[in-house]
Amino acid sequence: MSSLLSPLPKPLPGQEPEAPPAPGRSWSWLLLLILTVGGVSGYNYFTARQAAARRADASRFQHFARVRRGDLLMRVRLTGSTSARNFSNIVVPKLTMPESDQPLTLMTLMPSGSLVRKGQVVASFDPQGARDHLDDTKDGLHARENALKRLRAQLEVESEAWVQELRKAKATLDRARLDLKTLEVRSAIQKQVFQLAVEESQASYDALENDFVLKLQSQAAAFRINEITKDIEVLHVQRHQRDIERMTIEAPVDGMAIVQDVVRPGGDRVALAVGDRVTPGTLMMRVIDRNSMQVEGFINQAQNAQFRIGQPATIRLEAYPEAVYKAKVYAIGALATSPGRAQYYLRNIPIRMEILDADEKVLPDLSASADVVIDQEKDVLLAPAEAIQQSNGETFVYVRKGDTLEKRPVTRGRVFGPDAVLTGGVQEGEEIVVQQP
User: Fold this and answer.
1) pLDDT reading at 427 higher than 90
2) What is the DSSP string of 94-118?
3) Which segments of the protein form a coiled coil according to its record (predicted)?
């Protein structure tokens, strides 16, 4: 306590006493330093966060594709319709009876799409008119046969009468010859009379004999004429019997029955049905072989050099979008055809593609498309063509490297459709940006 009461030392001359530090100033500097360090750290943190967010956004909004190894297939799409290479047409029979061009009425008809066997009945027509005419021809045949029998009997009677006349003439000649043998006891006048009688009898007999031969030939000719007439009537009857048989139509081969369409009054196009009247010679049905389905289409004459027989193709049906079939080109037309009279200056070439793995879905007259492979490169690196960029003569792509994108020069090969061949600069499995960032 005494020390507290002792006086303070006096300052030396020329020396000012030090002022005591202001309370709290050191703490201000320390706080300022802490705030500065914290602000710098926070700025760096938020800047890094924003950069990472921008990279994430860039990666999120970019569309990437993976470089893959495969075959570059150069395809040309064709359109057409399905049909069968092997088939048999069935037409309405043309009969041989009078008014054979008159329509026939369908009595039975196999439903379209039915599977049929060879010899199975697929359609029949009303045979009543043909049966009536057959009855008339049979009556005519019976009349001809009876007339031939009457003629035969008549000719036999005439022949027997001619034989009797000939025998009578022969007897007269023989009697005259016997009388001639008695000339030794006859007078000169009687001798002359007997000689003239022999000559007259001989001439009469010879004339009758010659006439008999001619009459026999005439009778044979008349009888043959009637026989031919009867044979013609027999053929007439047989022809109409075949007409009745043709009223019932059988399948010529195994396959599927496809009923054809007709245009009804009013313009409606519908399939044939029981009760319809159809004109002879009209195509009414087609029996197809389900194992020989194909697609028929056309190619432009300028594309003809790109197609070859045996090229693979992929078939799709409009009715069944999920169905895909393998096919190959098996026929290319030799001559170009015109699609219509209005466009006579255009020429197309027909082409047919055989479907190799057809199933029950493939029916005739379905709309179809065919992707024909006209060229290909096997075992190459493929990338989307739109991912390849060009600038200042340089060809490059952007390759993903973690969260960053690397600009990398590449060597581009052939391009077809959406795909391009890369021969250098990237590896299989790398991801590239489809569009420039």
Assistant:
1) no
2) --SSSSTTS-EEEEEEPPTT-EE-T
3) 141-186
